[in-house]
Amino acid sequence: MPPVPSPTPLAGGTGRWLAPGGLVAAGLVVWEAAVRTAETPTWLLPAPSVVARTLWIDRGLLAGHATVTLAEIGIGFALALVLGVLLGAAIDASVVLARALYPLVVASQTVPIPALSPLLLIWLGHGLGPKVVVTALVAFFPIVVGTVDGLRATDREVLALLRSLGAGRWARFRLARLPQALPSVFSGARVAVAVSVIGAVFGELVGAEAGLGYLLTRSTAQFQTARVFAAIVVLSAIGIGLFALVALAERVLLPWRRWTTDDGTR
Amino acid sequence: MFRRRPRHPGVRTADATARGGFGASTPPLELRSISATYREKGATFAALEGVSLSVNDGEVVALIGPSGCGKSTLLDVVAGLLIPDAGEVRIRGRPLVAAERLGASAYMRQRDLLLPWRTALGNAALALEVDGTPKRRAMELAGERFPAFGLEGFEDAYPAQLSGGMRQRVAFLRTALAGRPLLLLDEPFGALDALTRAEMQAWLLALLEGGRVAVLLVTHDVEEAVLLADRVIVLTRRPGRVTHEEAVRLTRPRRRTQVMEPAFLRHKAAILEVLGLLDGDTV
User: Where does this protein reside within or beyond the cell (chain A) (predicted)?
Assistant: First the structure.
């Protein structure tokens, strides 16, 4: 049978990069030309070439701040992954827990981060703490939803088969339910890693001393617009890179997905 | 009785039989007046009414009947997945409640139910792993049987890479490796094309020649029932009751060529007659 297209959108030959690459290139050319013709001041809108030059000149500064932001994302996402899967499993395991936890999980997503940030600053200080918390807070939600959906989708007949063989609750979870849920957990993780970048930047907007979000705020205040753009480019690169990393992990850990469609059947 | 529930009651008592603990004539499976209801989409149907039957060592008993006569429900009851409303299920002469029957038999359904994330080898080894065999050892044991099941070279293939017939053979190997003295087969070849189906029936016949397993086979194919079974039990429309029992007197080992023998056709005609399919105006 023909192999079903891979579920990871970033995989594939170089050919599929031609269209988006060309589009971005064309946009940059138009932008560059417009800024030069209109002689727009750099503090208002820097030309792509100026942004590129700033990226190179400020590479040390950007790398330093990027390291801090990456650490916040890494710790926050890891925390979200562990908490998200555990919460998802708890919600699935018992109706009482589901009734108790699910509304709280949803409510946690309605908390406005700008309102929360100053409070976290008071409670946890100026270090990594508040940023990690904000990152984990925005990232754990898609993972919980992915885990719950994945666990609920288990094939009843497969469970009956395992039960008839004498498999207990834990064996059924380990042999059938958890592996069946993993693709859905990974879908959640891909969304989570993307929003965790936003989470870390939000966390840095108030009371930070380092990080790309802090650099953004400071550079905006100083009208160093080219540096703002450079920081945004680095943030985008981090987002795309982490997304690709999760997609790669999915391909390596779930090799069987290459031959199946999204519902796990042929 | 305050005894700990044995992990596999059927297996345990089979040993007891070998030691003379029970009479050698105690059948591996005995059903006494089983009545059961079936629930679907909130509605309740009477699926079985007073069904009694037994399966002896090394015997294949086929259950046949119109669709919706509770054949599958009966297998669910035997496997311990469904609690009957009335009646008794005895495994090796011992009456066991549903929870105690879990693990006593190996169940194979029309859908192969292979786990898509496990290779063919991993799927075949599943029942062994459930029994507590370490994964590596289970895979080893399964691998030894691959050539005999025509699966050599496909050990590392995922189910999605296999043909329908091969998938069903992996499911079959998983069932055989479970090593249970009682096999419950629910239209195991129903989803296969005619050729693959004939091939799989030959596999099953070969497997049955070797072992002394007892088989309860649900089918809607009269020819398959006569070819494979020692006895064919015909159930009525829902609620299913035993309406006829046909003892198949054909020599073993069975061959496909036997389907053309007069004795085979007589058995087939007798069953079709009970099913009301010889009137000429149906089918």
Answer: Cell membrane
Residues B194-228: pLDDT tens digits? 888 888 888 888 877 776 788 999 998 899 999 99
**DSSP codes, B111-137:** S----TTS-HHHHHTHHHHHTT--HHH
- Given strand B43-55, what is the order of strands in its sheet? B43-55, B29-40, B86-91, B94-95
Cβ distance A161 to B8 less than 8 Å, yes or no, reads no
Give yes or no for B203 touching A (CB within 8 A): no
Quick one: CATH architecture of A45-256? Answer: Orthogonal Bundle (1.10)
A173's tokens: 């979870």
Min Cα distance B282 → chain A (Å) is: 33
- Locate A232 and state its tokens: 């945004």
**What DSSP element (H or E) covers B48?**
strand B43-55
Long-range contacts of A65-69 (CB under 8 A, 24+ apart): A65/A210, A65/A211, A65/A212, A65/A214, A65/A215, A65/A231, A66/A212, A66/A234, A66/A238, A68/A128, A68/A210, A68/A211, A68/A212, A69/A197, A69/A200, A69/A201, A69/A204, A69/A211, A69/A212, A69/A213, A69/A235, A69/A238
